[in-house]
Write a structure and sequence with these properties.
Elements: H1 2-8, E1 19-23, E2 32-36, E3 42-47, H2 48-53, H3 57-72, H4 75-78, H5 100-123, H6 128-131, H7 133-142, H8 155-174
Parallel strand pairs: 1-3
Antiparallel strand pairs: 2-3
Helix pairs in contact: 3-5, 5-8, 7-8
Bound molecules: zinc ion.
The site of zinc ion has 5 residues, from α3 and α5.
Length: 187
């Protein structure tokens, strides 16, 4: 979690002390979300139905890095203690209860988490381009069904963000840099 440490240096000690929770919920919709423990530490929860749909470690890294990115970017505070489920695959229970004007903002935060998450996954030794296959599957299955009223972005948009992040990571690596997600494009 070096990206977290770099960003949280000024924030305090426990900001990167993650707890991972796997909830056994075989009949529930696939689900992942981020919360804080009662003492303020970041918690990432994935349920077993989402885990069952992931095909390899790169895809798992994409999910966990996305949730970690919400923490790293301070999205919980920015969304008023949002503890929403995240939609990675068609049929997920993704979305949170928000006023309509909050939905576009919610989608922007999701894309920001995808952008930062790609850097976290790559820095952790995983392949974010391969991990993005979960969005590829979602795009294929979901087709044009994604609604503008959804709190989650269109899977094809998420693929574009990850592709842009992968390109930026490659650019920084080629320049001899350690990839950092500072220079996010306008999302
Ligand atoms: Zn998310």
């Amino acid at each position: 979690m070096s990206i977290c440490a770099e960003r949280a240096a000024a924030d305090g000690l426990d900001a990167c002390d993650f707890t991972f929770v796997l909830v056994e919920a075989p009949t529930a919709p696939p689900n992942a979300f981020q919360t804080r423990s009662s003492d303020g530490k970041p918690v990432i929860t994935v349920n077993s139905s989402l885990l069952a749909q992931l095909r390899d470690d790169d895809e798992l890294a994409t999910v966990l890095s996305h949730e970690a990115a919400h923490h790293v970017a301070g999205h919980i505070d920015r969304m008023n203690d949002r503890t929403s489920p995240d939609a990675f695959l068609p049929g997920d229970a993704g979305g949170y209860t928000a006023q309509s004007d909050g939905r576009a903002r919610g989608r922007a935060l999701e894309l920001e988490a995808d952008w930062i998450g790609a850097f976290i996954a790559e820095r952790s030794g995983y392949d974010p381009a391969h991990g993005a296959n979960i969005f590829e599957r979602a795009a294929t299955k979901q087709g044009a069904k994604t609604s503008r009223t959804s709190s989650h972005p269109d899977p094809s948009q998420r693929l574009e963000v990850v592709a842009a992040a992968v390109a930026e990571i490659g650019r920084q690596r080629s320049a001899g840099l350690t990839p950092r997600p500072e220079s996010a494009p306008a999302l």
